[in-house]
Amino acid sequence: MLSKRIGLLRGLLSGNTARTGPFTVTVDVTRRCNLKCPGCRFHSDKVRIPAPGDPNIQDIDEAMFKRLCSELKAFRTETMVLLGEGEPFVHPRLVELVAAAKDAGFEVVLYTNGTLLDESRLQALVALSLDVLKISMWASSEEEYERNYPGAPPDNFSKIVASLKDLARIKAEQKSPLPSVVLHRPISRDNYRSVEAMPGIADETGSNQLSFSPVKTRKGQLDFMALSPDEERVLTTTLKKMKRDLKALSLESNIDQTLLRYHIGEAVWEKLPCYIGWIHARIKTDGTVMPCNPCNLPVGLLRESSFGAIWNGPAFREFRGQTITHEGLMDVGRNCDCGFCCHTGQNLRVHRVFKWCSPLRRP
Fold first, then answer.
1. Of 293, 212, 283, whose CA–CA distance to 246 is shortest?
2. Mean pLDDT over all residues of the chain?
């Protein structure tokens, strides 16, 4: 909404205090997971990066979540993303959390690995008018699934496809366009050759959009999963061709944003300021608040303070002041994993406007 964008600009110009609430808030509903995806920073056997907060609190408290929704409604936050250090459907009260977020008036995005979808859950999500169901799919076949999900049954792939077909049926029966279904493909050296299969899977399952992202190397720990320069060139050619082909299937995609992330490169902090502290917050299961997930920099705890007090508290203001300058961003980056930043597109949109106004900024 226009008033929030004006508030964003006012805050950027007047110092480090936000003049509007976050546009998007991402909430980790659980730390538990039923898979061990290689690229996952929390459960992979290849890399493990501890997150801030109390690891003994596995699932977010429903009462705290509802209080957060009430505060964010007053801040006119637009979108809430529900995901987790693990799989959201492991949370025993996930449907109730979705209902609370919808009651607060947010656009609600639910990010899942898709393995725990069943008829009753799908019926509930349609009845609640969940806005977006985003399915992470590292694979385009059972054979590829077995390689990309170590230890998981390869027939999970077919079960996910069947569940998405069931969802399309339920939506048709209830005459509902929601939830919109997004198939998301993190792209690695092992699966980049099969991205061309994704439009067919989307068409088969009645999905609405394809989404892609470069695999994050976790500061070099997963370099073996990253594409070489030659492989990146092959991939970008494939994605550009796919973008043209998607029009015939009436499928949307984030291909332009994906190409932008590859164009800017992994070291995004060298080319673009970070405005995430003005537009986003991440909430962990124990109530720890962070600007975003790759930044292991707690700025407050909901069990001790209100979100409003944290949003413009000293830690969040300090983060904003640092990340808006190149030198400060480099310093913050020592504690952050900003490679191939998923917020690159948002940061660029803000920067295209703010760079012309930045000489007027008050210190």
1. 212
2. 93
Contact predicate 245/200, CB 8 Å: no
252-253 vs 280-283, strand pairing mode: unpaired
Alpha-carbon span 278 to 2, nearest angstrom: 15
Helix, strand, coil abundance in the chain, percent, nearest 5: 45, 15, 40
Cα angle at 203 between 248 and 86, to 5 degrees?
130
Q: Which of 62, 118, 69 is nearest to 89 (CA)?
A: 118
Identify whether the C-beta of residue 278 lies closer than 8 Å to the C-beta of residue 18: yes
The confidence band for 340, taking pLDDT boundaries of 50, 70 and 90, is confident
Instruction: Tell me, rounded to whole angstroms, the distance of Cα 345 from its chain centroid.
Output: 13
- Quote the pLDDT of residue 363: 65
Query: For residue range 160-182, what is the model confidence (pLDDT) as tens digits?
Result: 999 999 999 999 999 999 999 99
Spatial separation of the C-alpha atoms in residues 288 and 276, rounded to whole Å: 17
Distance CA 233, CA 235 (A): 5
Return d(Cα 311, Cα 324) in angstroms, integer. 17
**Residue 198, exposed/middle/buried by CB under 10 A (0-12, 13-18, 19+)?**
buried
CA dist 134 → 108, 187, 211, 343, 356 (Å)? 11, 16, 9, 17, 35
CA distance 342 to 332: 17
pTM of the model: 0.95
Q: Which two tokens stand for residue 123?
A: 């019926």
Cα dist from 57 to 32, 97, 293, 297, whole Å: 10, 17, 17, 18
Residues 74-100: tens digit of each pLDDT: 999 999 999 988 999 999 999 999 999
DSSP type of residue 51: P
Q: Identify whether the C-beta of residue 212 lies closer than 8 Å to the C-beta of residue 185.
A: yes
Return the bridge partners of 252, or none. 209
